[in-house]
Amino acid sequence: MNYEACRLCPRQCAVDRTAGQRGFCGCPDVALVAKTMIHRWEEPVLAGEGGSGAIFFGGCTLGCRYCQNRAISGGPVGIPMDSARLRQVMEDLIAQGAENIDLVTPTHFLPTILPALTPRLPVPVVYNCGGYERAESLKSLEGLVDIYLPDWKYADPALARTLSGAEDYPEVARNAIVEMVRQTGPVCWNGEKIRRGVVIRHLVLPGQVENSLKVLDWIGETFAPGEVLVSLMRQYTPMPGMEPPFDRTVTQKEYEAVLSWMYLNRLEGFTQEANAAGTGFIPDF
Fold it and tell me: Which residue, among 8, 46, 10, 1, has the nearest Cα to 171 in the 3D structure?
């Protein structure tokens, strides 16, 4: 894992970030931390009353047009931190009561993050990502990440190209999630909280029920019941300039159709209420 000839993400830009070159993410050879906080809006099974110790990194390897975190994901935003400073931030969040360390969009800073995770922290480490991950890069995290929290956005390559500029997303995400499950094994519980495993998030998109059904089909065909959990999200919030049907929220009929398919696939997990859509749950960056 290094920033020279960078191939950390599936874009494989091969730029030398140590020499000032910039690839798709636009980020330098040091981690950019846009925000740290005790985050209480993740799935309740990830952290109890203490909340997650969220570390939001600037930049992104996807650039989804509807991203709610666009203020920080759209470019090299944040405070530069080396591995030692990043480790101190993690320990400070734990001292504040965080029940896990939640690394949000971390992939393009892996060379800085990996040393910060050693020695192991006393709480679970959550790898919170968009699902657009190289399996080869994920292998470097084996034994350091307890819970993978990937998105599985698209089964449709054309939709992935239109909304995220990544036509290869479906194949890449499938390989990545299989690697994540290989590392963690089946979901492991400690009382009412998850302590190890993979929780796959899927955001239902307006007018794209068929895409969601295909996503759920693959999860049901690939993993045994209970081997992974699914978080079926309803929080799509239209960003300015989005064309129909992406200029509206998801309807009750659309969400219920996808939810029924989730149950037909015998998938276990979590749902969201209609009031999840909106800007109220977006952190103040």
Answer: 10
- 184 phi, psi to nearest 5 deg: -90, -25
CA triplet 119, 122, 124: central angle to 5 degrees? 100
Total residues belonging to the chain: 285
Secondary structure tally for the chain: helices H, strands E: 8, 10
Is there a cis peptide before residue 111, judged by omega within 30 degrees of 0? no
Kindly tell me the sign of the dihedral angle through the C-alpha atoms of 129, 134, 135, 140.
Answer: negative
- Per-residue pLDDT tens for 7-45? 999 999 999 999 999 999 999 999 999 999 999 888 889
Percent of the chain with pLDDT over 90: 86
Which amino acid, one-letter code, is at 92?
A: D
* Sequence-ordered list of residues with C-beta below 8 angstroms from that of 179, at least 6 positions apart, any chain: 135, 138, 139
- The CA distance from 146 to 91, in Å, is 17
d(Cα 229, Cα 5) in Å, to the nearest integer? 36
* CA pair distance 139, 120, nearest whole angstrom: 17
Given a contact cutoff of 8 angstroms between Cβ atoms, the answer to whether 285 and 71 are in contact is yes
In this predicted structure, the answer to whether residue 285 has a pLDDT above a threshold of 50 is no
pLDDT in tens, 214-223: 999 999 999 9
Cis peptide before 245 (omega within 30 of 0): yes
**How many CB atoms sit inside 10 A of residue 83's CB?**
18
